[in-house]
Amino acid sequence: MKNRFLTYGFSHLDALISIDEVYELRSTYNELLLDKKRTAGLRSDLSGGKGVEEVERITQIMRPSSIEASLSQSIAYQRALLWAKELLGEDMELDFDMMINKAPYTDTETPWHQDAAYWIDMPDKRAVSCWIALDDVYEDNGCMWFNPVGPDEGVLTHKALPNGGALYCDAETNLAQSIPLNPGGCTFHNGFVLHYSKGNVTPNQRRALILNFRPADMIALERKQGVDHTGKRAFRNKQGN
């Protein structure tokens, strides 16, 4: 698993947590998904919708553990941190977490992008995101797709969907592969690997919990510059800059 991550920029585990632990997380997840009052200011629709639609198509809630502390005490957070340290070093710590849900029958893709496009430039580029499936995930409801990263991959030029929607870029993705998972399985990817997911055309939610880890001193650098992954989004390599 580690060799694949270091070589291609992504990898996966069939089971990070048990199904019982998935059920516990789902309960908290569903409460936050329905609670627009507690999640105000942390919540957006990555589809780029105007926010007045009856259904959010791709709901993103940043830093859910900041309003529901029990999350950070869960087995998922503990195991993901151990894997982050195994993959990239003992100085890895949790930078931020987020929930991303694709609502039923919304058929809205998350376009190809690199996570590093969302982040400030930092001298230490090490970072890993653990994407935990809380449902069966497959191509028709929006499992993750990855395109292997090259040895000198930088941050490509990105554009943004309107109204705080997702970033996206144009890139060759002919080597992309999908990673279906059972509930409790997870993927790991670095900040430079291109990834994407199709829209959800099924009658069920596609719930994912994502934890991002990076060196502790880089987190301190971010915070010093006012970056806490809760506020209004800025990004680098924006088209036209």
Verbal overview:
- The protein has 241 residues and is an alpha+beta fold.
- A 7-stranded antiparallel β-sheet has the order 1-11-6-13-4-3-2. The chain has a 4-stranded antiparallel β-sheet with strand order 5-12-7-10, with no helix packed on it. The protein has a two-stranded antiparallel ribbon with strand order 8-9.
- It is built from 4 helices and 13 strands.
- Mean pLDDT is 90; it is low at 235-241.
- It is globular.
Give a short summary of the structure.
The chain is built from 4 helices and 13 strands. The longest helix has 16 residues, at 19-34. The protein has helices at 2-8, 19-34, 75-88, 216-224; strands at 10-13, 43-45, 58-62, 92-102, 110-113, 128-133, 144-147, 159-160, 167-168, 177-179, 186-189, 194-197, 206-215.
Order of helices and strands: HEHEEHEEEEEEEEEEH
Which class best fits the helix and strand makeup? alpha+beta
Helix content: 10-25%
* Total number of helices: 4
The major beta sheet can be summarized as: 7 strands, antiparallel
**Approximate strand percentage:** 25-35%
Radius of gyration: 17 Å
- The low-pLDDT segments are 235-241
Mean pLDDT: 90
What's the shape?
A: globular
Name the strands of the widest sheet in spatial order. 1-11-6-13-4-3-2
Distance between the termini: 38 Å
Work out the number of β strands. Answer: 13
